[in-house]
């Protein structure tokens, strides 16, 4: 049984708008090459660097980023709609405050008093679709009429430029950014279907290490970072190649279209090879699978909304077209996909 497929009697929910924010000036790859080490891992296709990326400033918080990303939504829809949001869901890659999530402070900054506030973490790079699913469920089953979902990727500057980390092969790949989505209980840009799958057997395959016995919260030497081995990279690459098309095609089947008939396919963007393999799996030409990888790097969970916003502002998303979103998280413990009949504001 598919627990993500809504009953036909439930009201439609739309992804009514998207917006994004990229912090600071672009950072060129030359910043990292001055520190690069000669190591075999650097040749791995998973770590081929983009041309550019953005880094958050040391004092720029996750809430600051969400506040900036929401500015276009307020301009297009009015301050009253934003202040009256019923549901607020946030995902922050690196919580500014490890004790509490960003949700309450986001609500305070934006003048909201939502009835539902959630901070989610397990969705990883698929968090935007994960939050779409949660928001849609609440809007369809309660009196709530609006939701704001926000993804913050903020590890590139703080984590990947540390003195012991910036010379590693993976350091130039991530970039920072924030993407937000506005969901409304109407038929403006209806979410046609969502598929979410959890793979707990892969949950232990991603490590966060300080390179020593020190826990990340303890004082001492060693700098925290996600650690990789070549054997784990091989497994993650195989899973990612499979999981993103699997959930995407499951959604296609339920809405009655072939993968090759999708108008626009937007995924997370770990590297160029994943991007190529994913649109090949759906038999789509590259131009129907846009990304912002070379300009922004791997944006983790923010990759989907940032790319959607870029395409929408450029006028490349036609109203009435089918936009398919798909992503996998971490080492493959979660994957999700959603189809939307596009009609977002711009």
TrEMBL record:
A Pfam family recorded for this sequence: ACP_syn_III_C
Biological processes per GO annotation: secondary metabolite biosynthetic process
Gene3D superfamilies: 3.40.47.10
Keyword Transferase carried by entry: yes
Keywords attached to this entry: Acyltransferase, Transferase
An example Gene Ontology molecular-function term: acyltransferase activity
Family matches, as InterPro entries: ACP_syn_III_C, Thiolase-like
Limits of the Beta-ketoacyl-[acyl-carrier-protein] synthase III C-terminal domain: 252-342
Transferase keyword on record: yes
Name of the featured protein: 3-oxoacyl-[acyl-carrier-protein] synthase-3
């Amino acid at each position: 049984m598919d627990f993500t497929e809504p009953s036909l009697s439930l009201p439609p929910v739309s992804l009514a708008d998207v917006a994004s924010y990229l912090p600071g000036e672009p950072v060129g790859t030359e910043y990292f090459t001055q520190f690069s080490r000669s190591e075999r891992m650097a040749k791995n296709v998973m770590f081929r660097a983009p041309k550019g990326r953005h880094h958050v400033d040391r004092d720029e918080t996750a809430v600051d980023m969400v506040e900036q990303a929401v500015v276009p939504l307020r301009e297009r829809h009015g301050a009253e709609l934003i202040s009256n949001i019923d549901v607020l869901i946030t995902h922050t890659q690196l919580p500014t405050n490890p004790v509490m999530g960003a949700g309450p402070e986001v609500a305070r900054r934006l003048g909201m008093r939502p009835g539902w506030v959630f901070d989610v973490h397990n969705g990883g790079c698929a968090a935007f679709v994960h939050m779409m699913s949660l928001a849609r469920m609440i809007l369809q089953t309660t009196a709530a009429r609006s939701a704001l979902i926000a993804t913050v990727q903020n590890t590139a500057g703080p984590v990947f430029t540390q003195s012991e980390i910036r010379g590693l092969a993976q350091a130039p790949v991530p970039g920072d950014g924030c993407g937000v989505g506005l969901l409304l209980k109407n038929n403006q840009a209806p979410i046609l279907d969502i598929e979410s799958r959890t793979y707990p057997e892969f949950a232990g395959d991603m490590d966060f290490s300080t390179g020593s016995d020190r826990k990340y919260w303890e004082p001492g030497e060693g700098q925290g970072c996600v650690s990789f081995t070549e054997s784990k990279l091989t497994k993650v690459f195989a899973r990612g190649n499979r999981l993103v098309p699997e959930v995407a095609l499951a959604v296609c089947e339920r809405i009655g279209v072939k993968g090759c008939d999708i108008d626009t396919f937007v995924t997370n963007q770990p590297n160029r090879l994943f991007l190529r393999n994913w649109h090949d799996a759906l038999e789509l030409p590259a131009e129907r699978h846009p990304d912002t990888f070379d300009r922004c790097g791997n944006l983790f969970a923010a990759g989907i909304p940032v790319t959607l916003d870029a395409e929408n502002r450029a006028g490349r998303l036609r109203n009435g077209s089918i936009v398919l979103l798909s992503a996998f998280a971490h080492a493959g413990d979660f994957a999700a996909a959603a189809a939307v009949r596009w009609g977002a504001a711009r």
